[in-house]
Amino acid sequence: MANNIQVTEINSEMKCAYLDYAMSVIVSRALPDVRDGLKPVHRRILYAMYKLGLTSSARFSKSAKVVGEVLGKYHPHGDSSVYEALARLAQTFSMRYPLIKGQGNFGSIDGDPPAAMRYTEVKMAKISDEMVADIEKETTPFIDNFDGSLKEPVYLPAKLPNLLLMGSEGIAVGMATKIPPHNLTELVDALVFMIDKSTLGDEKKAKKTPMEDIKELMFNTTLEDLLTFVKGPDFPTAGIIYGHADIKEMYATGRKSIMMRARVTDEDMGKGKVAIIVNELPYQVNKSLLVEKIANLVTDKKIVGISDLRDESDRDGIRVVIELKKDASYKKVLNNLFKFTNLRTTFPVNMVALVDGVPQTLSLKTILEIYIRNRVEVIVKRSEYELAEAKARAH
């Protein structure tokens, strides 16, 4: 026993232990993989649902069953954190295109929590079927799960550019990521343009394998080309984004804060009164806290000219009514609302993702290039698998 004891400086050991922990959090929890845009917990949730047969055409199943499957086979952490991650994938106000279809109460934009997992039911959304398509055809590498009893995918085949499509958010040790969601049509148009403009680096080289061709792919697309298709982030709660220069810098460097504002209209209430109607909120703004904040500002007389405040939101959409006094200045009240409340806020973009296990800050062009290369690789592997299957049947 004594021979196995290693003498080391505590400073050195603490440094190594901290770095090991930091890298574990970065790679195994907090940051998404650029290839499928998923953090490990989200990937394990979708894969577990796929293995349970909970595809979009299946019946709904209890969320508790999915959480138990994920915990027992792939993700040995707290059940509350897994359920929270699962519920978020079903929230229409959190996800531009929800990856999970839910039945029951999955929370609200007012900050209400989801119902307990024993009450809610889930299955994969149709868009998630495309995330796992061809996974059984040896298209992606698999690794051992936490106890070595099963295999799990390193990343999903992901027909969709999921990192940009859904966005991502996570805090690791010493770094963080915050990627906004985008519009599917805009991304597809940009990808088609990139593919049409791509060339092979040296087409004269003989006897290339398909995998070598992937490495030779050259993309002759500029950021300006991409910006003709991708106009900016597309948040599930809509709203308005200001600052074309900021958006361009965000896509060029992978980092920039962008300004978001609520979409408001004016409405004649009769008897000489006008109301400010809020129909769309900036992303991740809690509506009930916003209404409470406005009420407190009126009480404290920091905003004057408001006679009534009502939240008339329903299943058809958001509608917050801010009635003004007859003598109130519409523009002055509106400017004060933007100044003192979250009707105007910023989204600090930091497009960090794992590239071959290493965290990198990525530009729009780089993310799309990596996505295309990965999809070509997946298609090549699928084709090789199907060819081998066909040859085996022929014999």
UniProtKB/TrEMBL annotation:
Keywords from the UniProt entry: DNA-binding, Isomerase, Topoisomerase
Top-tier EC class: isomerase
Annotated GO CC locations: DNA topoisomerase type II (double strand cut, ATP-hydrolyzing) complex
Biological process according to GO: DNA topological change
Listed GO MF terms: ATP binding; DNA binding; DNA topoisomerase type II (double strand cut, ATP-hydrolyzing) activity
Topo IIA-type catalytic domain: residues covered: 31-395
Catalytic activity: ATP-dependent breakage, passage and rejoining of double-stranded DNA
Entry EC no(s): 5.6.2.2
InterPro entries, A to Z: Topo_IIA-like_dom_sf, Topo_IIA_A/C_ab, Topo_IIA_dom_A, Type_II_DNA_Topoisomerases
Residue numbers annotated as active site: Y119
Keyword Phosphoprotein belongs to the record: no
Family listed: Belongs to the type II topoisomerase GyrA/ParC subunit family.
Name of this protein: DNA topoisomerase (ATP-hydrolyzing)
Species of origin: Candidatus Roizmanbacteria bacterium CG07_land_8_20_14_0_80_34_15
